[in-house]
Structure formats: C-alpha cells, structure tokens
Design goal:
This protein is mostly helical. The protein has two domains: 1-65; 67-125. The protein has helices at 6-17, 21-28, 32-39, 42-65, 67-79, 85-124. The chain starts with 5 loop residues before the first helix and ends with a helix.
C-alpha cells in the first residue's frame, strides 16, 4: 500500500470496517465520488482486494481455531441421552458430513498434485 496516499489507506480500512460506502467515505473524510473514482484505479483496487483477502484469511483462522470446540459440542449433543433423538441425529449427521467433505478435499488435493506433477514432468522432456 506504499503507492497509496494516507487518505486512500484510511479509505480502504474504512471500506472494510464500515457497512456502507457512505459511512466509509465519511470516516475517511472523503466524498463518495472520490471513493468511486479511486475504485477506477488499479493500484487502489488491488490494495483493497488484498486488504479484504487478509480480513477473510483472519476470519477463517478464527473459525478454524474453534473447530475442535465445535466438534466437541456436536459430540456431546450426539452422545447425550438428554438430547432429543432428532437433535442427536442432526449432530451425528453434521459430524459425518464434515468428515466426508474433509476426505473429499484431501482426495481432490492429492489428484491435483499428481496432475501438476505430470504436467511438470511433461514440460521437462
């Protein structure tokens, strides 16, 4: 973000942290029109996309850190005789669905890696 002015950097932070463009513009002390003009600039767009991606990566990391706890909650509900049968089934189904998706993702990743390796080996000949 070195190529951006301080105002533009503030605007990007405001766009990420405020619900509307109007609120972001007001926080950054720039006009709406100025923000829309900046969005036409490739450097501003790239910086904005990178900032948004970083926010999403951070949110994903937070969600991942809660995965073990979430599974324990589901396991507790699934195992509890105090839980209604439909709730226990729902918890069990959620655990199975998550497990199946994880295996599918691992399988796809392995396939992509094998394909990439074949492509690299073909290119070396």
């Amino acid at each position: 973000m070195e190529q951006l002015s301080k105002k533009q950097q503030t605007a990007i932070a405001a766009l990420i942290s405020h619900r509307t463009i109007e609120e972001a513009a007001q926080f950054a002390s720039v006009g709406r029109t100025t923000l829309f003009r900046w969005f036409q600039d490739d450097v501003f767009q790239t910086a904005y996309r990178q900032a948004r991606s970083e926010v999403v990566r951070h949110a994903i990391a937070l969600a991942q850190s809660a995965c073990s706890e979430a599974v324990e909650v589901l396991r507790g509900i699934m195992s509890s005789n105090d839980s209604p049968a439909t709730t226990r089934v729902s918890a069990a189904k959620a655990i199975l669905d998550i497990s199946i998706k994880a295996v599918e993702i691992d399988d796809l990743l392995a396939r992509v890696e094998r394909i990439e390796e074949k492509i690299q080996n073909t290119g070396r000949r």
